[in-house]
Write a structure and sequence with these properties.
- It is built from one helix and four strands.
- β3 and β4 form a beta hairpin.
- Helix content is about 20%, strand content about 20%.
- By secondary structure, it is an alpha+beta fold.
Length: about 90
């Protein structure tokens, strides 16, 4: 079964890493609603969603799917561009 690991949106999201756009205010409630909709879509597509609790000190920590793609016989570990997400 396809499994997606997610993490709740951090309460410190406003301090997230930015590299291509200027910092603007972030609506935390909207971000959480969008992330919940993302998780629901994954479920509708047949994925089992494992949602981890937020990491208040790590604003980018909701992006847990970036580091690895794991199959039965293979794991691909990706290198992230920003230091805070490694």
């Amino acid at each position: 079964m396809l499994t997606a690991i997610t993490r709740e949106v951090s309460s410190s999201l406003a301090n997230c890493e930015l590299s291509f756009i200027s910092r603007q205010p972030i609506d935390l409630a909207k971000a959480r609603a969008q992330h919940h909709a993302y998780e629901e879509l994954l479920r509708k597509l047949g994925a089992r969603v494992i949602s981890l609790p937020e990491e208040p000190d790590l604003p980018d920590s909701m992006f847990v799917e970036d580091p690895a793609i794991v199959l039965d016989e293979l794991a691909v570990i990706c290198s992230l561009g920003t230091e805070s997400r490694r």
